[in-house]
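User: C-alpha cells for this complex, please. No commentary.
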Amino acid sequence: MADTAKPKGGGTARSTGGRRRSRKDAAPSIADEQPKTLLEYYRQMLLIRRFEERTAQAYTQARIGGYCHLNLGEEATIVGLMTALQERDYLFTNYREHGYAIGKGIHPRRVMAELYGRSTGVSKGWGGSMHMFDTETRMLGGYGIVGGQLPLATGAALAVSYRGGDEVVMCQMGDGTTNIGAWHESLNIASLWNLPVVFVVINNYTGMGTTVEKSSAEPELYKRGSAFRIEGVRVDGQDVLAVRDAATDLVERARSEQRPFLLEAMSHRMKGHSVVDPAKYRTPEQVEEAKANDPVASFESQLLEAGVLTEELKQEIADSVRDEVTDAADFAENSPHPDVATLFDYTYATPVANESRRMPADPVFAD
Amino acid sequence: MTTSAPAARGERDGRADGAAPARPAVLTMQQAINRALAEALAEDPRTLVFGEDVGRLGGVFRVTDGLQRRFGEDRVFDTPLAESGIVGLAVGLAMNGWRPVPELQFDGFAYPAVDQIVNQVARMHYRTRGAAPMPVTLRVPSFGGIRAPEHHGESLEALFAHVPGLKVCAPSSPAEAHQLLLQSVRADDPVVYLEPKARYWERGPVPDDGPAPPVGTSRVVRPGRHATLVAWGAMVHRCLQVARLAAEDGVELEVVDLRWLKPIDADGLAASVARTRRAVVVHEAPLTAGLGAEVAALVQERAFRSLAAPVQRVTGFDVPYPAGPLEPKYLPTVDRVLLAVQRVLEF
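Assistant:
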C-alpha cells in the first residue's frame, strides 16, 4: 500500500482537446494570425473595456452598490486566458471577475444585471460583483475572500481526476494571494495528487496599495511554484497573443499530463483596487506607465499599423460594442430586484424544522 | 450540476435477507461511527472520506479504522496537514457532485478552516441560489473530558450554530452517533458533526439503519416532572447522573438530549418545560454567548407562561480551555448541576 493515497482518474485515454503548438518560438506575431481572429480578440477586449467603464459610471450613479473591482487594464490577459480554455473547462476567479464572466461566455446582460443586483443576473442578483456562479458556462464562481477559491479549484480538479475526465480547471487570483495560506495548501495538494489545474496569478504589481516587492519574499511569483515542483511561466499580460499561447500550452499540458501548472501574467491595473479606491499610493510616473501600457490601445494601434483594422472598421466595432454595453445596462436597469419573499430561500437545500424566519413585525411570542 | 456524477445512491432500505431483526449489536461510539461511515461509503459511490491520518492510520481515535482497506485509497484517503485545504477540497468536490465526509482531527484544528467553513461551505448554496450543491458532512472530534490540553477539548457548537447555512449535531450515545451520522451524510446540506471524544469508548446497543426522527428533533432520554435538564454530547450523561441522584431525594428530573444544535428543537424544549415548568441547560463551552443562552431565550420565548423560575445555565467558565488536571473543575460537575436544580426548584 502506498504511503499516501493518491486519488487517480479512470486511466482512460485523454484527448488533448484544442490546438497545440510549439511555444518555444519567438513572441507570437500578428502577422501569423488570421485577421478574423485578431479582430475577434480586439472586439472582446474592447467589450470588456467599455463594459467596465460603464460599470464604473453606474457605480458612481449608485446603480451598483457594494464594492466593485474592475478589469480595466486586464483585457488582454482575460481574452488570452479565456481563449485558451475549452468550453468544458472550469474557471474559478477572485473578485475581479466581470471580464472573466463575459469571456467565459456569460451574456453581458446577465453580468451587468448581477452588478445591478437584479434577479435576471448570473446569480439572480444574490452574488453581486464578486460572486458570479454559472454552471452552464462552468464558471464556478468569483470569490470575495482572497485565496478562498484556491482549495475549491483544487477540489474541482480532484473531482475531474476521479471521474477520469479531460477537463482542466483554471484558477485565477491576484498577486497578493500568493502570500496566503490557501496558496500553499492548494498548490501542495494539487501537485501531490497530480491534479489538472492551472493556477493563474494576475500580477498587477500591487495588492490593493502594497507592492509585490513589499509583500512577497520571492517577487518573481511564477518561481514560487518550484516549492511544489510546479512548473511556472511568466508572460506579458498586456499581449493577448502571448497570454493565449502561454495559457494554451499550460492548459493542454495540464490536460494531457494530468498535473498542475502556474502562469503569472504581468498586467497593469489602470484604476484603483476597487471603484472607491483613488489609488493615491501611486506615483504620477506609475499612472503614466499604466496608461502607456494600455493593452487595448496598444493592440488597436498594432492592428491599425498592420492594416488588419481600418478606421472604418474600428468605428464599426466601437459602435457595436457600445450598443452591446448600452443594451446590457438597459437590461439591468429594467430588471426586477429579487423579491424579499425569497430572502430565506436556499439557506438550506432541505426543509428545516423550527427554522427562524422572522421578519420585522412578525410575532415573536408564541406561548 | 454540469458534470456527470457517479451513479446515484444505491438502495439502502431494502433488507435482502428479509429475516426478523436480530438483537442490536453492542458497539462503542467509535465503532458505531465507523460502521455508519462504512454504510455511507457502501450505499453511495459518491461518498468520500478524507482528512489527516484517516486512511492508513485509521484516525487518531481509530474512528476510520479499516475503511481504506475496505473501500480503497480513492475513497478513503490521507491529506496533508492543511485544514483550510481539506474543507476547500470538500467544497470543490461537493459542487461537482460528490458527497465528501472530511474529518478535522480535533476541535481546535477546525479554527484554521473556519474561513472555508463560514465563507464557502455555509454560503455556496445560498449565494448561488441552489446551483452549487453542498452535501458536506464535517466530522470534528470535539468537547473535553479526556484530560487533553487546549485545542483538544474545546466546544465549537455555538460558533457553528451561529452560521446560517450550517446544520450542527452532537450525538450522546453509540446509537445516536450511528443514526445522526448517516442522517448527516444523506442530507443535502452541510452538517458539522461534533463527536464527544469522552464518550468514544462507551458501549451501547446500535440498532440497524432504519427510519430516523427528523433533523432538528430532540429526545427525552429520561422523563421527569420537576425540572428539565437540557444537554448534548457527553453532558447528557452528566445530567443522567444528576437525575439519578436527584431521584433518591424524590426529585424527578427530565433529561432532554438536544441532539441537533442547529436547528434547535424549540417545540420539544417548550413541550418539556410545559411539563416541568423549570429548565437548566448544561454545556461544556464557556458561559458567555454559549448555546445555553440560545436555549434559555427559546424557552422564554416559547414557554414564558409555563416557567416557574428563570432558566439556569451550568457551563464551562469564561477562560481559555484549561490544562488537563484542571479540566474536571472546569467542566460542569454533578454538584454544580444539582445546585442549579436546587435554585430553579426553590425560586
